[in-house]
Amino acid sequence: MRTTPANQFFSFSRWSLLVGKHWVEHRRGYILSLLAIAGLLAVFFTFIILMQGYATLVIAQFFAFFGGLYFAGCLFSSLLFADLSTKKEALPWLSLPASQFEKLLCALLFSVVFFFIAYTVVFYCVDIPMVHWANNALRHHPQNWPNTNQPIPFLSVYNVFTAVGAPIPEANHHLFLYSYFTAQAVALLGSVYYTRYAFIKTVIVGVLFLIAFVLFENTVITPMLPRNWNNDVFRWDQMKYIMEPPQNEVRLPAGVEQMLITLIQFGLPPFFWFITYHRLKEKQV
After folding, report:
1. Comparing 247 with 204, which gets the higher pLDDT?
2. Average pLDDT, stretch 77-101?
3. What is the pTM of this model?
4. Contact 185/272 with Cβ under 8 angstroms?
5. Domain ranges of the chain
6. 255: which of 44, 82, 137, 229 lies 20 to 30 Å off by Cα?
7. Which residues are listed as membrane-spanning (predicted)?
8. Mind listing the pLDDT tens digit for each residue in 166-205?
9. What is the rounded radius of gyration, in angstroms, for the C-alpha atoms of the chain?
10. What confidence score (pLDDT) does residue 1 get?
């Protein structure tokens, strides 16, 4: 006879049973979803290769990876606590013999760890053959860049972790990669906070927040700067020409700037997970 673990906050054996239960109940849907993502990526790459072979360059792979990651990852996270949307489904979920912390850890395991790994594997299973296909097409039918005589070189596979060839914010700071985990954490919080249409409401709130931030930067901070100065959030500079080094530059102290960047990169997801946990505790009352 198995006894109930004494620790009511976290028990690994109890949590592992919860993870196993979740996988058994949802594995078919997860596998079908990954196959659907692979199919959509294959259709997208096939279309752009047939239309314009050079469109499969690193930048196109970058947008394909993060476009699918943000949409599918946030949508997946918003569905993990879908049982809380109705009282009929919420009661069995709340009555499961596991703490709210264990339920949150289970959701984080599938949404943050497993989904990212699975999506990345699926992406490369599609991307690598497509890049080889495009290179084979370039080898047999060389193309030039539009309106030039320069031949298009063979394509390379985009590396998510080195971000070589990605836009500058991603190449320098992995802005899109780290921001994804923040967006996913917000989607997870929204699935607990909103009872109906959680994903749509969370997207609307997120877009409104981004708009408010941009308006604040452009209407409050930027007008306070001297003429011909640019506002780059943590850096302010004066440039005569876009491609030249700045004539003058004002930055926060190196330690403070790096601390703020690190807090934004690594601190926001745990912050939203913390709020999600307390929101789940309220659901138990």
Report:
1. 204
2. 83
3. 0.85
4. yes
5. 12-284
6. 229
7. 30-51, 57-82, 103-124, 175-195, 202-221, 259-277
8. 887 788 778 899 999 999 999 999 999 888 888 899 999 9
9. 23
10. 44
Q: Is the dihedral of CA 4, 5, 9, 10 positive or negative?
A: negative
CA-based nearest residue to 111, from 57, 11, 190, 39: 190
Let me know how long the chain is. 285
277: tokens are: 């946990």
Tokens 């497993």 identify what position?
114
Residue 116 neighbours by CB distance under 10 Å? 17
Tokens standing for residue 76 = 């997946």
Task: Report the Cα 181 to chain-centroid distance in Å.
Answer: 5
- Name the residue among 190, 164, 166, 189 with its Cα closest to residue 176: 166
Query: How large is the average pLDDT for residues 98-114?
Result: 93
Q: CA quadruple 29, 31, 33, 35: dihedral positive or negative?
A: negative
**pLDDT > 90 in the chain, percent:** 44
Q: Which residue has the tokens 């997120």?
A: 206
* 229-231: strand order across its sheet: 229-231, 235-238, 248-251
